[in-house]
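Worked Example 4.2. Consider the chain below.
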Amino acid sequence: MDGSVNILKATNAWDKALPHGEILQTLRIIDDSLPLTDPVQADFKSQEIGLDAFGVNMPNNVLRAALGDEVKKLKSVTIISAALQDFETDDFGITAYLDDGTKIRAKLLVGADGRYSKTRDIAGITCKEKDYGQQAITCLMSHEKPHNNISTEFHRPSGPFTMVPLPGHCSSLVWVDFDDKIETLTAMDEDIFLQTLQDKSKDLLGTITLRTNPQAWPLKSLKAKNLTAKRVALVAEAAHVIHPLGAQGLNLSLRDVATLAEILADAMRSGQDPGSKVVLDQYERRRRRDIASRVIGTDKFNRMVSNDSKILRHIRRTGLKTIANITPLKELMMQQGLTPSLDKSRLSAGKQL
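Applying the procedure from the previous section yields the following structure tokens:
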């Protein structure tokens, strides 16, 4: 999304990755809880809130490679191919021990080591986890018809089925369903899987072919009780994991990174210890509300969407109709979903660090 693009531009990796991404100009939501003889659809267009596009759909491997290339250019960065084994803190710094015998002394350790964070565990930071009993199938696919820069999301009782534009006649798929259904799908022969995929897409994109093999990912939410410990800060999935509904995960993670970078830069300019409690408390305060609102929001949204209760189905369909027909409400939802007002960093605003 827009703020994340600004953050990535500051790394100099964005221009290299951009040709592999595609802009999203319309977010189309279709309630698929009933047969499409009675469809409920809402189109959210970026032009309605004065944007050329909501954001860019970018393959993760492309973005990681571009960022990795930029890191290698930095003379201030030493890359060590070893894993964290343990660390010790004191009033003056932190000593990290790696599994290849390397010992590193620093003022601060940033745990950016994912949902199974060793940093978080060693620091003794507990977390709240939730298993949704769902998995997401992801893959890239080619299709006969143009996507017209429309991301289409079918809301179904077992989870969303989303097709997101990529360059040319290509899209990425995020197909969420219950565990047992996903296991059945991934065990299918390719031809049968492809026909099932074709049926779920309602032929909106014409004939579909697979560009990559489908992969399934278990869906869980995770929220660390604290973002910091003595001389330790957590960012991204070491601090939070959320449901893919609404595509908030990477954007939330990048906001962590941008805010922490800003706080550390300001602290070092003023001669403060970047690993001190007073500095880390600023990061904890600034990120707490944004993270909590996204974790809770996506969890509640998933429970509303991934539910076959007749009452919730009625509320869901009525709500979608209401939002589609009340322009101010529609605009407010788009603005908050794409440009959250909580914790704006200089980088996300396109300014210098």
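The chain has ten helices and 17 strands. The longest strand covers residues 127-143. Compare this with Example 4.1 before moving on.
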